[in-house]
Structure prediction request, 118 residues.
Amino acid sequence: MTQFPLYLAQVKLTDNRTHEIENIRGSCFYKMTLKTSFEYLDENKTQIVAKMYIKMSGDTSGYFCTEHLMIGTTFQSEYQFFFSKGWKYFELLFTEPRDVLDLHKNGIMLFTFCQTWD
Prediction:
């Protein structure tokens, strides 16, 4: 079995239109909603936490499917596995200067993985 990454969405810190993205089609859940908020952790605005809520809903590709998501930036990534419908929550913490700069420049990317049985 081989897994290929599939781009789903990009969340930009300075683009409020990307802070709520609806109707994302994953490889398992055919309707996902992503809501993101950003919060500075210090007075100098050198550390940021991204609070991410994702809703799994709609039809699925099968009864025992898993949505495998990779959420990250150039230097940091988080892997999440979802088996059931409903709202899920996780955070990404950006404390290093290079991570904060990358978040400002490129945002957060969201990928899923498509499986092939070749």
The beta strands are 2-11, 20-24, 29-40, 48-60, 67-72, 77-82, 86-94, 108-116. The mean pLDDT is 89. The radius of gyration is 15 Å.
